Amino acid sequence: MRGKLLIPAILLTLSSHVTQAISAETIRVAIGTQDTTINTATGGLIIREEKLLEKYLPKDGKYKDVTYDIQWRNFTTGAAITNDQIAGKVDFGVMADFPGSLNGVAHEKAGRSSIFISVLQGSVKGSGNGIVVPSSSSVQSLAELKGKTISVPFASTSHGLLLRAIKAQGWNPDTDVKIIAQTPEVAGSALQSNQVDAHADFVPFAELFPWRGFARKIYDGSQANGPTFHGALVDKAYAEKYPEIVTAYLQAALEANRLIAEQPEKYSELIAKVTGVEAEVNYLFHGPLGLQTRDLTWKPEYRQAVATAIETLKLLKKTDQGLNLDTFVNDTYIKAAFKASGLDYDAQLKNYEQLPLNAKDAATGEEIKDSKRVAQIWVKDEPLVRHYAHAENALKALKTLETEGKAIRVLYAQDRNTGIKLLGAQAWFVRSDAGEVSAFLLKEQAEAWAKANGGKVLDYAGVRAAVLASN
To answer: Pfam family example for this protein (predicted)?
Structure first.
């Protein structure tokens, strides 16, 4: 009798051990980031540095006693993230539309699948990608690069931009220009030593190289009017097994987005500390009226960017197969994250505005209502950027600040045509007879404006002198 009673007791003990083993499961959450690609910050760097993922990972239901093994791996390219995903070392990855599309193709070739779960930051116009020339170059526009050598990171989103820009000129990319492959790191040295005539690149290098003084931007992606973005992908099998974890990751991204919107200067400094990319360049993207828009919704333009990437990659012979966009682009998880965060996905899907500027003119105290001619000054040792309704107000203030012995980190201006944020020292300006100052990325754009509206075309030094002389 006693022997018969022992069997259930043993079974109970074994059953208890099995239950404990299941409930004590360790789940890996491995995320591949691109820290220096600063517009991915809300999908990686800020989540990591502020420990936001830990805040949202599920801790009840089937996850009640789970242990999370959170792994952060930083890469310089999306291709490297894809390699580690295929090798089973990374679950999530952040990258642009072109490498993201290659990610999907690479998974299919490996007999697996990945899904694009969210946009992080981008531009429906194409801003973010750009073409620069050495600062000593006389070239002022893309049209002057025929017969020249242009370098670009191959199979990147900027490679796609370059090909579209060349096509718009009516050129043959195989005969009218010489395109060579160069990473941003190599291109920086090549520009400084004049080994290339121009370089096309993605965020933040078309702004970072001019900021560092050895290059000048002559073409912005918005001129090609082709949408571009960086976003987040995840292994499809992982997402199906742990949908709540995918949603949690995107909730963390939404909070990171809120934090940087509320305190862009603070997080521009954080990104600088981690990456070495100067805060002034980070703010160019992440501040109000920034060069790109942080947007986690799947706007039709971003879906089209993925489709365009696939077709361009075929032309480059980087792939001979397509992807089913209806399954590759998956908005299920980001919609769930919006809902869990108390946000309206459909309303944001319809919103195409830049991050708004809600501020008063630092010189006049008046509310800034029109962003077309906004200018901003970041004073050294001041935590917040100063805002001005007009460039002429900012230029007058600049002289006063310098007279007071204050060092100026940067002056920004908004392009009058496109609305993109510019580094003031690199911009061109038109000053009307009435003293109104408008900023432009390119000299030819400024000349066209002056011809149509009147006024004089000036560089940064020239417009400063003209505004001060009028006082």
So the answer is: NMT1_2
Topology at the third CATH level for domain 130-223: D-Maltodextrin-Binding Protein; domain 2 (3.40.190)
Question: What is the DSSP code string of 175-220?
Answer: TTSEEEE--HHHHHHHHHTT-SSEEEE-TTHHHHHHHTTSEEEEEE
Predicted confidence (pLDDT) at residue 18 exceeds the cutoff of 80: no
Find out whether 288 and 324 touch, Cβ atoms under 8 Å: no
Distance of CA 258 to the CA centre of its chain: 16
Q: Is the full-model pTM beyond 0.90? A: yes
Answer yes or no: same fold for 21-122+228-349 and 130-223: yes
Spatial distance between the Cα atoms of 207 and 220, rounded to a whole number of angstroms:
10
Fold topology of 21-122+228-349: D-Maltodextrin-Binding Protein; domain 2 (3.40.190)
The C-alpha atoms of residue 87 and residue 100 are separated, in whole angstroms, by 16
Strands 293-294 and 198-201, sheet pairing = unpaired
Q: pLDDT tens digits for 396-434?
A: 999 999 999 999 999 999 999 999 999 999 999 999 999
Confidence of residue 319 (pLDDT cuts 50, 70, 90): low
> Are 184 and 77 contacting, i.e. CB atoms less than 8 angstroms apart?
no
What pLDDT score does 2 carry?
40
Token pair of 150 as six digits: 């242009």
Decide if 215 contacts 204 (C-beta within 8 A).
no
Structural domain boundaries of the chain? 21-122+228-349, 130-223, 375-469
Nearest Cα to Cα of residue 53 among 249, 233, 234, 243: 249
Q: In what order do the strands lie in the sheet with 67-74?
A: 67-74, 26-33, 92-96, 228-235, 114-123, 293-294
Q: How far is it, in rounded angstroms, from Cα 388 to Cα 394? A: 6
- pLDDT of 340 above 70: yes
The arrangement of strands across the sheet holding 149-152 comes to: 178-181, 149-152, 198-201, 130-134, 215-220
pLDDT at residue 1 above 60? no
At 342, which amino acid appears? G
Distance CA 48, CA 41 (A): 9
Do 382 and 279 form a contact (C-beta atoms < 8 A)? no
pLDDT in tens, 73-86: 999 999 999 999 99
Instruction: Specify whether the backbone of 401 is left (phi greater than 0), alpha (psi in -120 to 50) or beta.
Output: alpha
> What whole-number distance in Å separates Cα of residue 306 and Cα of residue 229?
9
The torsion of the CA quartet 29, 123, 393, 281, rounded to 10 degrees, works out to: 40
C-beta neighbour count of 146 within 10 angstroms: 12
